């Protein structure tokens, strides 16, 4: 029983020109059986910060609830939204708190920081941050995603082109992973709008 | 092996469960009701370790009643499902319950709904769901014949198809099933499907 592969997931985030895109698959499975094809892995923390959690679905849900709680508390106290870098540090700290009994998730965090500069990072299940300038991936399809993103990515893409690139990278990667897929969910975030799109790929 | 499944129709939700109480190779009784009335408009079909099943569902039932007494209004199905998930999640890393739950309910504002909650506290709202070895047969049958907004007659026809499939293809198929329904008029027994009646005295 591989616990990180129990539910199946694929998550990717990419940086563009003053924008970012974050995408995930939609399958919720229990090992070989598919339970649902509309599982939400990406959550909005606030208009400029998104987090997508891959890994064990129960911990994805628990961690999401804890993070929303912490951010709402921060908003009440500081009277402003959290910066993406701060939020990433918060997630890292919360994960490390459970160092010897961890949440079995690997988050991918994407946000627009000061001056609309896009920020992405990923971390392992005990909070080791990995910042990147181009793209970050996570989940059972991560190896395929690394390859697809490396091949398709180029810097300073505009929102529409970024959407195409991340969608193609996601769909082609999940097609090589039996535990993830059944469509895609993509958010493309610019300083002025958030565009949410559902992808229809191979439904198998 | 315990078979539990359910689906949502037009203004109602149906759940069916087998009624065998099994310990190793012995069938203790074949009229064990595994679908509990959580309140007037909610049903909980549970499968898993017998002690945990009864204890946990009764605990949830009593807490749902307590909320109603304290606050004067009943919980919605979504709230009850989230409460159940919270209890399972809290217990998961201390003293886990081995209970899988399908929670069906009817609310005035949102209509009929079905929630899939597995033993490691993964929660998902679904149109059709199933647990156990029977799920390999019932989920596929439901995938083939299920449509949005089915009438009660059509839904019962589908439930009967699933029961037939389980009976004919599962090696230790449970002989009897109970079917319960919840709609605007409340939660209640719909029917029993018995192929083996309990024998009360030995034939002499």
Word description of this protein:
The complex is a heterodimer of chains A (204) and B (204). Chain A is an alpha+beta fold and 204 residues long. Chain A has four helices and twelve strands; from the N terminus they run ββββββααββββααββ. In chain A, the strands form three sheets. Chain A has a five-stranded antiparallel sheet with strand order 10-1-2-11-12, covered by helices on one side. Chain B is of the alpha+beta class. Chain B is built from four helices and twelve strands; from the N terminus they run ββββββααββββααββ. The mean pLDDT of chain B is 94. Helices cover 33% and strands 35% of the residues of chain B. Chain B: Its main location: cytoplasm. Chain B: Belongs to the peptidase T1B family. Chain B: It holds the Pfam family Proteasome.
Tell how many strands the DSSP assignment of chain B holds. Answer: 12
Helix content of chain A: 25-40%
Structural class of chain A: alpha+beta
Number of helices of chain B: 4
Strands ordered across the widest β-sheet of chain B: 10-1-2-11-12
Query: Strand portion of chain B, in percent?
Result: 35-45%
Biggest sheet overview of chain A? 5 strands, antiparallel
Query: From the structure provided, what is the oligomeric state, counting identical versus distinct chains?
Result: heterodimer
Order of strands in the sheet with the most strands of chain A?
A: 10-1-2-11-12
Q: How many domains comprise the coordinates of chain B?
A: 1
Mean pLDDT of chain B: 94
Architecture of chain B in CATH? 4-Layer Sandwich
Low-confidence stretches of chain B: none
In one word, what is the shape of chain A?
Answer: globular
C-alpha-based Rg of chain B, rounded: 17 Å
InterPro entries (chain B): Ntn_hydrolases_N, Proteasome_alpha, Proteasome_beta2, Proteasome_bsu_CS, Proteasome_sua/b, Proteasome_suB-type
Protein name (chain B): Proteasome subunit beta
Family (chain B): Belongs to the peptidase T1B family.
Keywords (chain B): Cytoplasm, Nucleus, Proteasome
């Amino acid at each position: 029983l591989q616990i990180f592969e129990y539910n199946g997931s694929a998550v990717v985030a990419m940086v563009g020109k003053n924008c970012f895109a974050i995408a995930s698959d939609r399958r919720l499975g229990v090992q070989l059986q598919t339970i649902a094809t509309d599982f939400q892995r990406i959550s909005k923390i606030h208009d400029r910060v998104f987090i997508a959690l891959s890994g064990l679905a129960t911990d994805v849900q628990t961690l999401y609830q804890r993070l929303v709680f912490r951010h709402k508390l921060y908003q009440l106290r500081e009277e402003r939204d959290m910066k993406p870098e701060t939020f990433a540090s918060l997630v890292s700290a919360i994960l490390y708190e459970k160092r010897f009994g961890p949440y079995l998730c690997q988050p991918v965090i994407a946000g627009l920081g000061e001056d609309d500069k896009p920020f992405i990072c990923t971390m392992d299940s005990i909070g080791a941050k990995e910042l990147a300038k181009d793209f970050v991936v996570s989940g059972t399809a991560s190896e395929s995603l690394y390859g697809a993103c490396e091949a398709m990515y180029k810097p300073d893409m505009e929102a529409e082109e970024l959407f195409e690139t991340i969608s193609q990278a996601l769909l082609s990667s999940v097609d090589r992973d039996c535990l993830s897929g059944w469509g895609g969910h993509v958010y493309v975030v610019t300083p002025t709008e958030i565009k949410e799109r559902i992808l229809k790929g191979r439904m198998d | 092996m315990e078979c539990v499944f359910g689906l949502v129709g037009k203004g109602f939700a149906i759940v069916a469960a087998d009624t065998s109480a099994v310990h190793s190779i012995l069938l203790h009784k074949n009229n064990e009701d595994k679908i509990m009335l959580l309140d007037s408009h909610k049903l909980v079909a549970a499968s898993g370790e017998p002690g945990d099943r009864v204890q946990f569902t009764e605990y949830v039932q009593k807490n749902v009643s307590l909320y109603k007494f304290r606050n004067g209004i009943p919980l919605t199905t979504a709230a009850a499902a989230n409460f159940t998930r919270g209890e399972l999640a809290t217990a998961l890393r201390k003293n886990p319950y081995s209970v899988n739950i399908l929670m069906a309910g009817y609310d005035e504002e949102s209509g009929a709904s079905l929630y899939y909650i597995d033993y490691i506290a993964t929660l998902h709202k679904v149109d059709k769901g199933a647990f156990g070895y029977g799920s390999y047969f019932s989920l596929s049958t439901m995938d083939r014949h299920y449509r949005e907004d089915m009438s009660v007659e059509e839904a019962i026809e589908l439930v009967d198809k699933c029961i037939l499939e389980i009976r004919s293809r599962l090696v230790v198929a449970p002989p009897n099933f109970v079917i319960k329904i919840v709609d605007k008029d409340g939660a209640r027994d719909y029917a029993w499907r018995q192929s083996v009646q309990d024998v009360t005295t030995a034939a002499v």
